[in-house]
Design brief:
The chain is an alpha/beta fold. The protein has helices at about 40-50, 50-55, 65-75, 85-100, 115-120, 140-145, 165-175, 195-200, 225-235, 245-255, 255-280, 300-310, 335-350; strands at about 30, 80-85, 105-110, 125-130, 150-155, 180, 205-210, 220-225, 285, 290-295, 315, 330. The strands form 3 sheets. A 7-stranded mixed beta sheet has the order 2-8-7-6-5-3-4, sandwiched between helices. Helix 3 packs parallel to helix 10 and helix 4 (about 85-100) runs parallel beside helix 5 (about 115-120). It binds 4'-deoxy-4'-aminopyridoxal-5'-phosphate. 4'-deoxy-4'-aminopyridoxal-5'-phosphate binds next to helix 4. This is Histidinol-phosphate aminotransferase. It catalyses: L-histidinol phosphate + 2-oxoglutarate = 3-(imidazol-4-yl)-2-oxopropyl phosphate + L-glutamate.
């Protein structure tokens, strides 16, 4: 089939998402950093009001209703907001608008693997710079490359750490290209770099409703940036990238901050408990400002534990990648789910089987 593809398609490392079992399968799913609680009742109520007329017509091309609601919540003008089919689409829109062969896409590693795939799809040049010990940002190296697009996930996946805003500010001020600050997990931390969009027109902060708002299945994300930057991004997005239902449900969800905050508070408390339980079992745990933990098993047998848990119907994430081969990424679930995981691990770690 190769003859049908562009020359680099065969060589491309396609993005491999976590396993997504069929609905109804009885498993404990702690592999994709989904929220274990249902979406806001206000968001679900919107579903009751959907009628054929909504679906007969094309949706608003820029998700205007959602932009207005997000504008109120974030305190930024609505024309500083771009809406996407999940934040993944917005990452792709930035790559499409800002890169081409000969232009550099740069990011510290390990991080979200999709950055690499998207850059490859655009035939962009890629520079991956290893994070320092304890996830210190390789600031000078990133500045030295001065990419057309620099991606920083903050909080980062799979490490869970937040990149200090002063480092991001320095990057933004020194780079002549675009700095994408991927805040997919921002709902689980107090720290955000959103204010940098007011200071630097080359910064876009990208967020999602998949995590804190429990809407991963809806596919809705948004970016905040100076309209001068958004102008170019709008040119390469699909005409109707947000469907009418996603726009309406997302609007209700982001408006219901109290519900999201209550879910987040529960998840943070469970995160503390799960980290303590895993440390008790001898795991090394990195401080996390997200809804997941990076965990290194005491015997270094991460892949084995991943496989054994999977056999028992508990899915977590294992990345066969430099620096991650001896670690696991575990989404924080409900207390019951976390307890089931810890009990399974007590047996596996204790017996070596
Ligand atoms: N950025 C990071 C760092 C992520 O982990 C994810 C989720 N896999 C995303 C972006 C994409 O999220 P979504 O497309 O669901 O908005």
């Amino acid at each position: 089939m190769t003859k049908y593809f562009r020359s680099n398609v065969d060589a491309m490392a396609s993005y491999v998402p976590g396993e997504q079992p069929q609905r109804g399968t009885q498993i404990i799913k702690l592999n994709s950093n989904e929220n274990p609680y249902p979406p806001s009742p206000a968001a679900l109520a919107v579903l009751q009001n959907i009628n054929g007329e909504w679906l007969r017509r094309y949706p608003q091309p820029f998700g205007e209703e959602f932009r207005q609601a997000a504008s109120k919540v974030l305190g930024v003008p609505s024309d500083w907001i771009i809406v996407g089919n999940g934040s993944d689409e917005l990452l792709s829109v930035v790559i499409r608008a800002c890169t081409e062969p000969g232009r550099q896409v740069v990011y510290p590693m390990p991080t979200y693997v999709l950055y690499r795939t998207l850059a490859q799809m655009q035939d962009a040049d890629i520079t991956e710079i290893p994070y320092g010990e304890d996830y210190i940002l390789p600031l000078e190296e990133l500045i030295a490359v001065n990419g057309s697009v620099t991606f920083i996930a903050s909080p980062n996946s799979p490490s869970g750490h937040v990149v200090p805003i002063d480092d991001l500010r320095k990057l933004a001020s020194q780079l002549s290209g675009v700095l994408v600050i991927d805040e997919a997990y921002v709902d689980f931390t107090e720290e955000s770099a959103l204010t940098l969009v007011n200071e630097y027109e080359n910064v876009i902060v990208i967020r999602t409703l998949s995590k804190g708002y429990s809407l991963a299945g809806l596919r809705l994300g948004f970016g905040v940036a100076n309209p001068k930057l958004l102008h170019g991004l709008f040119k390469v997005k699909d005409s109707y990238n947000i469907d009418a239902i996603a726009c309406a449900i997302g609007t209700a969800a982001i408006t219901d901050q109290a519900y999201k905050n209550a879910c987040v508070a529960k998840i943070k408390a469970s995160r503390t408990q799960l980290a303590a339980d895993l440390k008790q079992l001898g795991f090394q745990i990195w401080d996390s400002q997200t809804n997941f933990l990076l965990a290194q098993p005491p015997a270094g047998n991460a892949e084995y534990l991943y496989e054994k848990l999977k056999e028992q119907g508990i899915l977590i994430r294992y990345f066969k990648q430099p620096r991650l081969e001896d670690k696991l990424r575990i989404t924080v679930g409900t207390d019951e789910q976390n307890q089931a995981l810890v009990e399974a691990l007590i047996y596996l770690v204790g017996t070596g089987d």
